[in-house]
Amino acid sequence: MTRQLNRRALLGTGLLAGVSACTSTPTPAAPPAVSQPPPFDPRDWASVRAQFALDPRVAQFAAFVLAPAPAPVRAAIERHRAGLDADPHYLPPGGDAPDQAIRAAAARFVGGEAGQIALTDSTTMGLGLLYSGLRLRPGQDVLTTEHDFLSTHEGLRLLAARTGARVRRVRLYDHPTTASAERIVEAIRKGLGPRTRVVAVTWVHSSTGVRLPVRAIADMLAKVNEGRDERDRALLCVDGVHGFGAMADGVADLGCDFLATGTHKWLFGPRGTGILWGRAWDALSPVIPGFEEPSFVAWQRGEAPAAVTAELVTPGGYKAFEQRWAMPEAFAFQEAIGKDRVQRRTQELATRLKEGLRAISHVTVMTPAGAELSAGLVCCAIAGMQPQAAVARLRERGVAASTTPYVPSLLRFGTSIVTSPEEVDRAVKAVAALR
User: Cα 59 from chain centroid?
Assistant: First the structure.
């Protein structure tokens, strides 16, 4: 007979029973009251911006780096923190399985199922769980691109070191402003081998702002996979962090097999949170032991779990629970505004910024002009000035920007729901003054 465990059991009469048996377990106290957030009208962009505690003197174009949280998310974090501080046995109202509530909220947002979602701390953790857990058969290989970030390239290098699989990279465009969906898809198609098991790409490139046509790539791979054995099917794995929360696409729109993303960037969720969505969990092995019920049931029986699931892939251990448990409020905040409205706002502001920067003689915009191949990131180069110096000079003028961690590095802006048209014009004017 097995015993079902949840976090309360783990803390009380479960894993720590030897300790807790020496003490009494009082009835959990209600957490202290938290001050109410300011009024929120999701139809009004000024009201949306007012939900954030950002310094109003700074035009924020680097919020996506480690996003601030809006008032409902901050209130939830504080509520859960106060509850845990008052009683370490505290759990959010509504049951003893808060992770299931998070999965359900995430599933509604991405258009998937709760059982398809593993909970992570970041995009990098999600990609690490994915590429460290993928099982490759002899002769299978991996395809990625020259444009991907360290998290993908290093994750695949470690995969290759573990399995001996060959990892190949293809170039999708020579210059980001001349990128085309057709060439991108064709470059990936030509890079495929007969035993390519993994196709690893990034939805929106943090190096240039190019947004890949993920759906078109998925459709191409679907045709390639028609004649393949299920165990040889090419899996489309996507680093989605700079599209997730900025673009309206769900997983059905993208058509990928796995999507890793942090929820503390464009979604403006709690720091140190993320998800890994997947529909091919049987291709993975868990990397870190899970703490969900299936893990404990199998362990107590002295058996291995019957099948790999998103729950088993979710790393166990104790977390910053006040942050994790506030994730549903982040999804609800964006859903209240409307995913389509968020995308339109993001891209309209990015277009306004690109047009303004292109009119400056000493600025070269490196991001595609069209919205079909871009999102909220806008990258550029300033003649005679290093990006780091430009960031410092802009900050003096009340404009927060960032640099790309690539060679060569570029000056980078991100338009989002915390940005206004007036701030875009202010940023353009500040860049024009950089000489």
Answer: 23
